Amino acid sequence: MAQYQEVFKLLAVFSVLVVASLFILFAVLKPVIFGPSDSLISLLRAKRIMGPNMLDVIDAYEWFGIELTFAERARLQDVPFSARVLKRCKDTHVLALVPAISVNEMRKGQPSAFFPAFHLADEPFANERGSARWCLVRKASVPSSTEKVVSEQLNVLDAGEVSASARIAIYIAITHFLATGERIFAEPLYARCADSTAGGERVLVGYFDAFGLRVMSDWGNRRAWNVGMTSMRKCNAPA
Question: What is the DSSP pairing of strand 54-55 with strand 78-79?
């Protein structure tokens, strides 16, 4: 009996050592896998910086009933933007954990948040679910991007920016409104997204008013005073 007790003690010690070793290994490999330590910050620190301009797993569940998988939670446990970038963007952007969800699923989950007329439901972009990821999206179109065609608008973006997909822009606009009451991409402005329809037209979101968020399309060659370009920061791009 005493021999078995000794074996159990050894196994318990071994288990503790294995767990401790795994934690140490993760701490060592984390910067290699995810980038330098200053390029990732904790959820708590991000929340302190962004305040109400942050959406996380709780919002995904509260407004759309989406629960992230264990693997997704592990992959997204840190925010892939530095504190410097978040501090610079805390008033002009929304930081959001965007789950795998399509535009049509959003419309089904929160129909009153959308403008009733929607003629793009059969388009590929409207059914694309994507994958869960952190995004830092500008609340309005990029400054100085109105009255330009698409190619000119893309040139306005800086090296750390890309145009946001319609799925990401719509999720953040709708969920941020539900969570805070603030409408981004608000009337009278529209913002072109990275997506195009099957016919080649560029997808636009905007004119978010009491009737809901509008999702439309145009050819991208129209210069309009109220049509700009969406923008989101690239992960770990310098401020």
Answer: unpaired
Distance CA 230, CA 38 (A): 27
- For residue 160, what are the CA distances in angstroms to 35, 54, 136, 157, 174? 16, 20, 11, 8, 25
Q: Among 68, 214, 204, which residue's Cα sits nearest to residue 146? A: 204
pTM: 0.83
State how far the Cα of 230 lies from the Cα of 191, in Å rounded to an integer. Answer: 5
pLDDT 10s digits, 67-121: 999 999 999 999 999 999 999 999 999 999 999 999 999 999 999 999 999 999 9
Cβ atoms of 208 and 173 within 8 Å: the answer is yes
Model confidence at 40, in pLDDT bands (50, 70, 90)?
confident
Q: Which residues contact 237 (CB under 8 A, 6 or more apart)?
A: 85, 159, 160, 161
